[in-house]
Amino acid sequence: MKDIDIIKLKETILDDNDADAEVLRQELKSQKTCLLNLMSSPGSGKTTTLLALNKAFEGRLKWGVMEADIDSDVDAYTMQAAGVPAIQLHTGGMCHLDADMTRQGIRAFGRDDLDLIVLENIGNLVCPAEFDTGAAINMTILSVPEGDDKPAKYPLMYEVADVMVVNKIDALPVFDFNKERMEGYVRKLNPEMKLFYISAKTGEGVKELADYLVERVKGWNE
Amino acid sequence: MKDIDIIKLKETILDDNDADAEVLRQELKSQKTCLLNLMSSPGSGKTTTLLALNKAFEGRLKWGVMEADIDSDVDAYTMQAAGVPAIQLHTGGMCHLDADMTRQGIRAFGRDDLDLIVLENIGNLVCPAEFDTGAAINMTILSVPEGDDKPAKYPLMYEVADVMVVNKIDALPVFDFNKERMEGYVRKLNPEMKLFYISAKTGEGVKELADYLVERVKGWNE
Q1: How does strand B86-90 pair with strand B63-69?
Q2: By CA distance, what is B177's nearest residue in A?
Q3: Closest residue, chain B, to A149 (C-alpha)
């Protein structure tokens, strides 16, 4: 096969966000709040997964959600209707949250009594991976219809996440999704990745994910 | 229902990309090249749609593809294997292409004999919408599994695109996807949007899209 020309375009420079994120992480640790940064493509099922987790937590955690969106506020209303304290963050067009924006959100939320705050980041596999939000847990969702090759194409996301959820497994019969190939890409990027297969729609696999998260949150808040 | 607190975080400022894009658009017009900027979430089926279009063009266009990816080069090989001239652009982690990066790509491609150059942008519903690449046609793909609410959540994409392709319609029976609701969101943002329903996998609807694009390209290059 003929070689492909590969052109490297200019690179962006990241700022001092990493240091700021580390400060926020320690602030949250000292007030016994575990922040979970939830990242995925648009439409992978972030909100649906949170609704499924809410049931599966079975009251074991006091938790709330910060919904980050460019413009809409439908997700925050959805979470609130399910009895989960929720706040809506509008990023003014920005494609990700950095540590300072996350801090602004947490202050506005004003709930230092929660064991767990989930930041539902902007639906985007690229930019959120570049910006440490100060979270103790970085969780990414890949839905089956997106394809098994996403870890190869958006590698940074799978390097920075420590928990990966494969969602919409009820749709596996309809799509060409090779679990082994997907896991091969992920393990190469991140051998320690904690991997869960779920259907937020049918509930399959959600209990295992919820149990794991409850333990992670308790460990962080000890 | 209780109101949700909405916090406006800081906004980014766009640069003079728009002016640069307009210059590039006129340069391409004068050399009779139509540039199509193809945007979508990761996994919506951009490359599969291009492969389906290649068959449906039936030789009516001389065309080529610039595959923009953060790191991989699998898409450019896929297009080349199908007989389509292709070049791979690596963005060095960047989440979108701007007009200057697009110009770098077109120069490196070095094919001023093509009627149509497709820029397959980074899989991202947010950032590519903010940066005019100089394209004559801005096309976005929404796949059925992503959900009918994406235009409400990522409005800018549906404002800047003039052609919208709803892909994976073969999966409509498996997902809760309300066409009327989706079209309602889109028409509100962009009453002029040209809308096509296709399955790049089965070929359904692809001929209509191909016929339309052939006419658009001919019109531009006249």
Answers
A1: parallel
A2: A43
A3: B43
- In whole angstroms, give the CA distance from residue A182 to residue B166: 25
Q: What are phi and psi of B97, to 5 degrees?
A: -115, 140
Pairwise CA distance, residues A140 & A138, whole Å:
7
Which of A44, A213, A17 minimizes the C-alpha distance to A140?
A: A44
- Find chain A residues with C-beta within 8 A of B42's C-beta: 41, 125, 146, 150, 153-154
- The secondary element (H helix, E strand) that includes residue A109 is helix A99-109
> CA angle B210-B117-B103, nearest 5°?
155
A153 in contact with chain B, both atoms CB, cutoff 8 A: yes
Number of CB atoms found within 10 A of residue A181's CB: 14
Share of chain B above pLDDT 90, in %: 74
- Give the closest of A8, A88, A89 to B92, CB-based: A8
Chain segment A142-155, per-residue pLDDT in tens = 999 999 999 999 99
Contact between B5 and A94 using a beta-carbon 8 Å cutoff? no
8 Å CB contact between A140 and A110: no
C-beta atoms of B123 and A2 within 8 A: no
Q: Provide CB contacts within 8 A for A4, sequence distance 6+.
A: B73, B76, B77, B80, B86, B87, B88
Asked if B15 is an interface residue toward chain A (Cβ–Cβ < 8 A), one would say: no
Nearest chain A residue to B89, by CA: A7
Quote ipTM for the complex. 0.83
- B44 C-beta neighbours (distance < 10 Å), count: 32
Q: What is the 3-state secondary structure (H, E, C) of B87-106?
A: EEEECCCCCCCCHHHHHHHH
Which single residue is written with the structure tokens 């110009």? B103
Amino acid symbol at B33: T
Distance CA B108, CA A8 (A): 11
CB contact under 8 A, B90 and A9: yes
Q: Any alpha helices (H) in chain B, and if so which ranges?
A: 17-30, 46-57, 74-81, 99-109, 127-130, 150-153, 155-160, 179-189, 206-221
User: Is B127–A41 a contact, with Cβ atoms under 8 angstroms apart?
Assistant: no
Prediction pTM value: 0.89
CA of B49 vs chain A CAs: smallest distance (Å): 14
3-state secondary structure (DSSP) of residue A152: helix
pLDDT digits 0-9 by tens, A20-67: 999 999 999 999 999 999 999 999 999 999 999 999 999 999 999 999
Contacts of A206 by beta carbon, 8 Å cutoff, 6+ apart: A49, A52, A53, A55, A56, A198, A199, A200
